Write the structure tokens for this entry.
Amino acid sequence: MPTEVENALELRLALKRFAPDLAIETQKQMGLALSPLVTRARGFIPADTKVLSGWIKPLASDDTRNYRPFPKFNSFEAKRGVGFKTTPSKPNKLGFVGLARIFNASAPGAIFEVAGRKNPRGQKSAATLSKKYGTVFKGKNLNNSNNPNAGQQFITNLNNAGTLVSARPQGLVGRPSRKETGRVIFRAFAEDNGVAVAALLKAIEIAKDKFEKRMAA
């Protein structure tokens, strides 16, 4: 979960410029702090046998060659897609920079992470809507399968393979968001109980103390 640290970016830049050995050591310690969280997250990726058989079939066929097919699930690739970075990110729209982050680079892994948190029963069926209103419905926000229950069946299978867990700390002021919920990284954050974040902040604090002592010497 996002944690704001004042002047941390300035510290990282100063370390890189004036104390490159401390910069390397700090980055290493940050990686050690995040590594257990990544391992925990990868453990929540299900085996191929736990997902619907249709999701592990080849990416394309005669029916899908004219548009982007639904990405094929592969447990090994999904686990490998979970990782971390300890280099500053580009500023977001609010100007915040991520000093370290855990990511899910696998498209199927990302689908497993969040599918169902917006539409717990799956997307509405285009076929059902078309039949009901007598006109053609089709779109990226609809279930375009000929099986009107495909979305519900898919979400039910994912819920059986992994639990959607909110990473929002209990007692936190403000309105909860479903964007803080997931089956992999968010679940790992929730079950980690802040241990990784605390270790990350400690690594930054130690680097700050060492840097200030070196500059004062």
